[in-house]
Amino acid sequence: MAYVEQKQQPGKFQSRFELPPPVYADSQTSTGSRCACRARRVEVFRRVAKASIVLVFLYVIAGLSGWTGGSSRIGQSLPWCHKSEAGAIDGEQPGANLARLPTHFVLPSGDAIPAIALGEFHLILHLHLPSPSSHNRTWQASKGEVGNAVKVALQSGYRHIDGAWIYRNEEEVGAAIKESGVPREELWLTSKLWNTFHAPEDIEPKLDETLRRLQTSYLDLYLIHWPIAFFPDEPQKIDYDLTNNPYPTWKKLEELVDKGKIRNIGVSNFNIRRLRNLTDNGLRYKPVINQVELNYFNPQPELVKWSKENGILLEAYSPLGSNKQVGESLNIPEVKGIAKQLGITPAQVLISWQAQRGTVVLPKSVTPSRIEENLQVFRLPTKLYEKLETAATSHKPQRVGDPSKAWGIDIFEDEV
Ligand code: A2P
What string of DSSP letters covers 223-235? Predict the structure, then answer.
């Protein structure tokens, strides 16, 4: 997997200082040598003063532009203007003086997947996930909301839409994409195979349904949504054969890659044991992606490390803690502190942190201003990045979403 670096923002503070034209004492008009001598002294004094002013200006400019390096005394004494650690300065875009992060990851197929996607909500009425608490619409949106969000996202520059058959909004999404006028080849479309359809004979018809609803002939990425298979006729009854051995499901997905209906295949919500259990089969196409919950509350450092070592790109869902815990996420003292220091929003800090960990990030929102905000990610200065990573990995991990109880199976096999 390779990372594609986006060019850094052009440097700031590059305008030249224009000094007023020099004013000299006119010796031709002097009336005597004492006057001439005084005039010379005045002129020398003026030149020295001017030179000093120029030197002070140049030193300040050098400090502002970062020419004096990260440990510049100027940067330290004027933290508001240090290039790599500064917040927004009046009149500037927030984060304008911060470096950008890679915009894409390149998969083994050669396809470049955009690092930030619009994550989608389920359409309300969805039945198979744990019920949201009464005041939270966890993962849910009303009819029309997701279609609008997709339109706003595409207008704002997103080119990656993360969906799933079970979200029950693929028609809405397909229509919004069509309306946007963005050419299909510029887009990255992901969908997911629902638990009820893991049996090889059920997969292609469901994929075709997704393709038809999205109005496309292929998906860029198709994921096994959960490592749990249900029997088709009894939606929440677990098919332990296909759950314990997902190879037949995978072989069918490989066949669909060969047919050209899917360009890349992967999994979602798999832990390391479940992934090994699958890849031990000597696959023709390895899973290139594992989409999992990754956020401050559940940062999964071991999975992040293992996935990097094994060439599997992680995608972070619920990066803000989902509807359930977004308020808490945005109020974490470390997150708020970094946001203030850098002049960006707490949501941008959290999304940037995940992207900087080397994962694709899938923030969900149906609010236009937030959709735009979430696409702006920045490279956090190393010290701040490490501070956040340490804070996130120092508390007891807690999943924001876990349907294990509702489905009667330990999905993640977390150590308690
Ligand atoms: P909304 O859709 O009303 O904008 P996650 O991506 O972790 O699943 O979190 C989704 C939740 O976070 C939604 O409630 C969404 O609300 C909210 N959200 C998304 N982006 C932002 C943001 N930039 N600032 C504040 N809340 C946000």
Answer: EES-S--B-SSST
